Amino acid sequence: MMNTKQRARSVWSKLTDMPMERKLLAVFLVAITLPLTFIGYISYTNYTSSIEKTTVSYSNNLMIAMMERMDDYIEDMMRISSIPAYQADIRQNLIRSNNYYEQRQEMAGKSDGKAVPDDFNQLLFIQRGIQSSVKFINNIKRGANVVYIFDAFGNGYYSTETGAVRLDLEESYLRWKKASESSSGEALLLGNEAYISNLNSKKNALTVVRKILDDASLKPIGLIAVDTDFRVIEDQIIELNKLTHGNALIVDDKGGMIYDSDKAHSTHSIADQVMQTAGQNGHFYASVQGERQLVVYTTSAQTHWKLFVFIPEREMNKDSVRIRNTTWAATFVTIGVALFISILFSSALTKPLRKMMRLMRSVQEGNLSVKFPVRNRDEIGQLGLQFNRMIMRIDQLIKDIYDIEAKKNEAEIHALQNQINPHFMYNTLETIRMFAELNDDDSVADMLSAFGQLLRYSIGDVREKTTVKAELEHVRHYVEILNYRYPNRFKLELHVEEPFYSVPTLKLLLQPIIENAIQHGFDDSKPVMNIVVQMDKTDQFHLIHIIDDGTGMPPEVRERLNHSFNGGDVSSSGRSGIGLRNVCERIKLHYGHNYGLQVLEGPFGGTEVVLKLPLPWSENDK
Fold first, then answer.
1. 384, 352 contact by CB (below 8 A)
2. 26-43 pLDDT, tens per residue?
3. Which CATH number applies to 245-316?
4. Could you tell me the pTM of the whole model?
5. What region holds the Histidine kinase domain (predicted)?
6. What is the second-level CATH architecture of the domain 483-618?
7. How far out from the chain centre does Cα 328 lie?
């Protein structure tokens, strides 16, 4: 199966092989589609982000204003609950009521279970006194449903003019009393409560409860409860929902629900999760019943209640979606018009090119009499003009080649007549060697044998492959002949393990390097010049080290040679290192640019040349 790289190459090959007309169409479409798409995407993204920021800011301002109004309203209710602390009449009547019911309890205990008659005159006096104060309190602030005042025995006094008195007043009193037991007279705001009024209507109210204390003893003498009309807050929430197109939710500081405009209460669980981690205000996105919604929240500084507004993302981005759809429609229309114009232009541009292709096929078949009609001086016209000149030049070159080939054939015939067969030289050297052996001249025979092997190896095709073992044998013959000329002046040490003998390599790589070392590094002051050939390998290369203890090489010369080996400018190096550069160039041409030579300072003060050759499995990796 094709891997990813091969599939990518296949797709790219199909694209590059497309006709020019289709390429131009593709370029025109891409040049138009990409900018329009990018501009549309950026515009939609920026507009959506701007709408989100505006919505969050606008909703925050509305919510903060609403919370401030709600705080003011609750603050007024708390102030109303403090009126008994400043009204002596209320406190005196509560003390009378407490004394009256305390006396009745004492009398009931002394009467052995007999009913104690009520003092209606005193009860009426107490009731009228407290109820007149309640009426006064009710008239202070519009929106207070009912104000209840209880004595220490739980007897309640209230005004029935509002028609919203609780039917479960006794149960409510017990809850209010329990909630206020731990307080020391401060106002307590209780959560939203639903109740049935004496008119059998269902109502909701926020209740502010406060103990009534005696001025002298500071002991509780009663309790006041103010039921606030929740419709005042509800009307504000309904108005907020209209402005934000969302649903509002109010929870207290303990996570209890005060109000939820979403009757299904699907948002309450999200509010519970946020209560533990959310700050005073902020916003985030949440999924409510599978729909993504923007949640904006703020916190009351007085009650610490949190107001959440859930705004559906589709509602918030309604305008941006409309703009996006309009942009896409305009983009498709523009692409359609651009496609029509692109077809016209690409056809006009490629028609002359198709004609030139037909003429080239005709030339390929051998017809050199064709001519491209040049009508314009644009690039295609200039190309056609150069095409006509090229055809004329090709025709002339063909005639010249015929003449040159005729002369070359004649010269080769003369060269063949004068050529000396290399085997004649081998046979002649072998004959001389035989005569030297017959005359007991072993030195001459050995020298001629070494020279014959050297000549036979060198005159062969230099492009053919060989092995490391053959190269080492050739080097050994070369140094052996040198030692005949300069007796015992050169010592060759071959430190190559047998597994490396069969490594394939090119011919005549080592001998030019050793010849260069002897020619430029031979030191007359030393009796013997040592030359060591070593071989090892790494994960990437076979390395052959040729080390001598000659005069060495100046650092700048080494640097210049290594620079030339890596493809640098060699114009300033003169003729020095030509043999080394030739060897390096042969290696690079055959194996690739990852291989070649490197010149180092030798460990014995001379020079070390390192040949980098491929491993067997990467020999053809270029």
1. yes
2. 777 777 777 777 777 787
3. 3.30.450.20
4. 0.47
5. 420-617
6. 2-Layer Sandwich (3.30)
7. 27
